[in-house]
Design goal:
By secondary structure, this protein is of the alpha/beta class. Helix content is about 40%, strand content about 15%. The protein folds into two domains: about 10-30 and about 285-385, Alpha-Beta Complex (Aspartate Aminotransferase, domain 1); about 45-280, 3-Layer(aba) Sandwich (Aspartate Aminotransferase, domain 2). It is built from 13 helices and twelve strands. A seven-stranded mixed sheet has the order 2-8-7-6-5-3-4, with helices on both faces. Helix 4 packs across helix 9 and helix 11 packs parallel to helix 13 (about 370-380). The chain binds pyridoxal-5'-phosphate.
Length: about 375
């Protein structure tokens, strides 16, 4: 809003398609909402009980600035045991979910520094970069290239202002997982041009084709990689707003200083919940992973059986980014038609960057029975015949 009391930086509305979808979901009583990546499952009851018990036992105060030491240790044990990456305690800071991205960007960016993001991108990235006074630079990826990063195109975007590259694999919205070759090529470019890589690894659990690969495991990348992760998706804990950052100790030290000014410490109760989740992951995660996996594979099959839409075989996350170019309509027009005629709420691909035009994103955050109903309704639509 343009008002003298408002900073000019926010005179332009920066609401994303995600925030608008709340209002759209209320248009009809029977809307099946596939727009947001907020899982329908609720947090495992044992996690909630553990957090409750811990609060009664006195975990209601501030924690250490870099997070509860027990939680830090549990996260580092996880990296060691599951990903075989040894990380020192000085290289971790517990944070509040997506605040981690802001802390990472604030720690490394000078005003006007450029940050390359690959599109289709998580809708918040461009403005997260602008909030940290950086300039987002968009690198398109394409279905024909499996939405992998094309290294020549990446290099052609690098200027003397480029400071960092944000990568996200497994990817929201496309579901793509970068191959080992892509990861090594990105690393080679980052090293050659002395860039920081911010690796958003929030969908670690949902890598269906190959084991998850962290940028931290690529040779030579530890000293220039900032990993951000959260408990939101891998543990179905979106509302607890808890996550962590792994980075070289000198970057973590700056992140701690910024975090202190913004939130002092991450919420203690959420940290205790995260501790239980992390140390009981073998009991909690397998069923969740299988549930989401069966949903995306079911939905992909339905999509590929409907004329005028198609999708690549699912590789990761619980999103599907399906091609609707044959309808001849824009992604926003198709989104509106699906909502009006089938009462199913999706997101238009254009919300994820210009190269997302011609696609629709769904989040498989309802069970197979609801997905069935959604696609039974969609396949009756004229534009898909
Ligand atoms: N990064 C990606 C790629 C996401 O898809 C999301 C949420 O959907 C986030 C970050 C933020 O998640 P949270 O703040 O819940 O950790």
């Amino acid at each position: 809003m343009e008002h003298r009391f408002i900073t000019k930086r926010f005179w332009k509305d920066t609401s994303t398609a995600m925030s608008k979808s709340y209002a759209m979901a209320r248009q009809f009583d029977d809307v099946i909402n596939l727009s947001l990546g907020d899982p329908d499952l609720i947090t495992d009851a044992n996690i909630s009980y553990a957090a409750y018990q811990d609060s009664l036992a006195g975990h209601t105060k501030y924690t250490d600035f870099r997070g509860d030491p027990e939680l830090r240790k549990a996260i580092l044990d996880y990296y060691h045991e599951e990903l075989h990456i040894p990380i020192k305690d000085e290289e971790i800071c517990v944070s509040c979910a997506c605040l981690a991205m802001n802390l990472a960007l604030q720690a490394i960016l000078d005003d006007g520094d450029e940050v390359i993001i690959h599109a289709p991108y998580y809708t918040q990235y461009p403005q997260q970069i602008e909030l940290a006074r950086g300039v987002p630079v968009i690198l398109n990826t394409y279905e024909e290239e499996d939405f992998q990063i094309n290294i020549e195109r990446l290099e052609s975007l690098i200027t003397d202002k480029t400071k960092a590259l944000v990568i996200n694999t497994p990817n929201n919205p496309t579901g793509t997982c970068f191959t080992e070759e892509t990861m090594r090529n990105i690393a080679a470019v980052a090293i050659k041009h002395d860039l920081v890589v911010i690796s958003d690894e929030i969908y670690t659990l949902y890598s269906f084709e190959n084991p998850f690969m962290s940028m931290l495991s690529v040779d030579g990348m530890r000293e220039r990689t900032i990993v951000i992760n959260s408990f939101s998706k891998d543990y179905t804990m979106t509302g607890w707003r808890i996550g962590h950052i792994i980075a070289p100790d000198f970057i973590i030290d700056v992140i701690r200083q910024i975090s202190e000014k913004l939130i002092f410490t991450a919420p203690t109760i959420s940290q205790r919940a995260a501790l239980y989740a992390m140390t009981h992951r073998d009991e909690i995660q397998p069923a969740m992973r299988e549930e989401y996996k069966s949903r995306v594979f079911y939905a992909a099959e339905r999509i590929n059986n409907i004329p005028n839409m198609s999708v690549m075989s699912p590789r990761g996350t619980f999103y599907l980014f399906f091609n609707i170019k044959k309808t001849g309509l824009t992604s926003q027009e198709v989104q509106m038609k699906i909502l009006q005629e089938a009462h199913v709420l999706t997101l238009p691909g254009s919300a994820f960057g210009d190269c997302g035009e011609g696609y629709i994103r769904i989040a498989c955050t309802v069970g197979v029975d609801k997905l069935k109903e959604a696609f039974d309704r969609i396949e009756k639509m004229d534009i898909f015949k």
